[in-house]
Amino acid sequence: MVFKKKYVAVLLTAAFILFLPTSYANAKNDLELSANFDKNEYKTSDGISIQLLLKNAGKTPVYVNKRFFMNAEEASSENRDVYLIVESPSGEKLPCKVSYETGLPRTADFVLLAPGEEAKPERDKNIKYFFDFSKPGDYKVTAVYQNIRGQEIGVDTFKGKLTSKPSVIKVVE
Known about the structure:
By secondary structure, this protein is α+β, with helices and mostly antiparallel strands. It has one domain (about 1-170): Immunoglobulin-like (Sandwich), CATH 2.60.40.2970. It has one helix at about 1-30, and strands at about 30-35, 40-45, 50-55, 60-65, 80-85, 110-115, 120, 125, 135-145, 160-165, 165-170. Strands 2, 5, 9, 10 and 11 form a 5-stranded mixed β-sheet that branches. The longest helix is centred in the N-terminal third of the chain and has 27 residues, at about 1-30. The protein is globular and about 50 Å long. The N and C termini lie far apart (about 80 Å).
């Protein structure tokens, strides 16, 4: 009888290990990243704040890193949670003006998003700090969220890239 209980326990554990990652991976594919602006048109002298939002559009909870540290695309994935791709009015990709060491996220930066729940940064980011918007015209901005953290604190988080739909903002004199 003891042998049968151990055998059943081993089978259940194996089934759990085999099938949980599949359903969990599907939940990760249901995350959506959006990048929005408070207005469509900015003066060259205005700050340009971006609002980032992660939404769990799936049916399964998923852990995410809600730190949203922004850095240059060229920075290592260890030093950024989000980067922006900004196209100038001429269609050229703008270089990011800032790159810095971010350090590790805090335990509190990892949250479990239930279906329908959202996570956002503590505050909006002024992207003029990162990019040169001095020329008038239309700029196309796309946000990319990439998380590689979580295992350091034993949390199975979303690991991968999410890309927002592009937003177009107009800069005028």
